[in-house]
Amino acid sequence: MAHPGKHDRMFLTCYADTFGYGWHHVDLFVHDENDLEVNWVHWQADHDGPEAADAITARIEPKLKRMTEWKHGISANGSEYWTADAAWA
To answer: Which domain of life does the UniProt lineage start with (predicted)?
Structure first.
């Protein structure tokens, strides 16, 4: 496979603390044109879910904007999560 040329697909993921770990956070993932992950970063949130993710993202990365509505999902292990596309303003 050729080295990826584009690293511009970004999306946010936030979670519900389904298993009570006490770690509320938001992830920013960067994928290439082959939809392979090339980088990610996360920051801690005060609470779970989209509202808390929006609030902390606005404070930590004010130039990072959510571009789509949050989409709810449930992983294979039963964890709740939400994803939304993101872009730098």
So the answer is: Bacteria
Question: How far does the chain reach from its first CA to its final CA, in angstroms?
Answer: 31
Find out whether 69 and 49 touch, Cβ atoms under 8 Å. no
Which of 13, 4, 6 minimizes the C-alpha distance to 86? 13
pLDDT tens for 10-39 read 999 999 998 888 889 999 999 888 888 888
pLDDT at 29: 92
9-15 vs 71-74, strand pairing mode: unpaired
Based on the number of CB atoms within 10 Å of its own CB, is 55 exposed (0-12), middle (13-18) or buried (19 or more)? middle
Q: How far apart are CA 65 and CA 74, in angstroms?
A: 24
Q: What gap in Å lies between CA 16 and CA 30, rounded to an integer?
A: 21
Give 40's contacts (C-beta < 8 A, 6+ positions apart). 27, 28, 29, 30
